[in-house]
Fold these 2 entries.
Entry 1:
Amino acid sequence: MTSKKLPEWVPTAGHQLHLTGIHFDAIRLRGIRGEAVLQHLATLTEGEPGPVVREVAGARWTYFLIPPGASEGYDWPPGVKCFGPATRDEWVGIPAPDGNTYPLSWRCGAPEEDEFVDPELLHGLVLAQLAPAAGEESG
């Protein structure tokens, strides 16, 4: 079991759905795109990117949890789903830090209280990942 001071919205067993925009906002990316952004984020933060939830079944979504309300300060590009206060009745599954939480898991460990992904850094990485490769000619 972890010795971290967990946020009250992290369950002790299994997983629970939480309404976004209250305890956190979530930025969702699909499959390999989410993994690529997470890899860059982890590199830039020395392996401490903040809370990131991964769904290992279906579309293999990656959810980056940012401070509540922070998603409104950014224009998220197509292909990115923003779950925040501007959306209505949007829920995200949150796994426990340990045990059977299938199909959800923490990618870099469960968060400590008041720990979030840096929304500005995340936004920059998402935009860079979606931008055309440097030197690539159009048309």
Entry 2:
Amino acid sequence: MIQQRTNMDWMLKELADGVPHARHVVVLSADGLRMAQYGTDNDTADRLAAACAGLQSLAAAVGHEFPHGDGRMRLVVIEMGGGFFYLMAAGARAYLAVLADEGVDAGLMGQRMRDLVARIGEHLSTPPRNGEQVA
């Protein structure tokens, strides 16, 4: 398990180093638990993971309003003073989150996040915890 996490951290480093202005990269489970991180300390990564769980839940609720969609959140991008926040579905019940400074190339970030998810998506999946329903 430790080796797998180390490999994941290395892949997150590749994303962060490949996109100028990327600051924090976090992989989280649907219930807001940090699975891996790069470019941030544990406390910041845990706060981001917890906030992302709420955001992905909100996005899913909005997604159910589309009559022909499946209601699943694929990507959320928030632009705010100081930079951008990206949250992307990354396997069953797993998400990839990135904070980036102003000046980031939004298209490049989205592309690199999709590439990373495609390469390691099955490693980012998390099984449902006891008592949870599969979304």
